[in-house]
Amino acid sequence: MKPIEPISTNLGSIGSIGLGGKSEPTSSFKDTLMDFVSNVNSSLKEGDRSAEQLAAGQIDLPTALIKQQDAVLSMQLLMSVRSELIGAYQDLSRITT
User: Fold this and answer.
1) What is the mean pLDDT of residues 10-20?
2) Is residue 3 part of a domain?
3) Is residue 11 part of a domain?
4) Rounded distance, CA 56 to CA 64, Å?
5) Is 62 domain-assigned?
6) Which of 2, 19, 36, 96 is most buried when burial is the number of CB atoms within 10 A of its CB?
């Protein structure tokens, strides 16, 4: 019977936060949201490009479909985040008035 080996942890960026102290935010909410919107925009452009490449015979159908689905899912996620933010804003405005 082999002895139990210890579990190695890979904390990545979480390990730099620290457990006891406060951590400074690396970016603002606005910057994070703008990066997200930019990534969605890039995904939509890539989906359009893949359709053009498919029509020109430069890529195969599965690759084009994957890129298109990625664009669709990115847009759905953006709309979901938008709806949640609007709902949160409306809740806050009801509380303050």
Assistant:
1) 50
2) no
3) no
4) 12
5) yes
6) 36
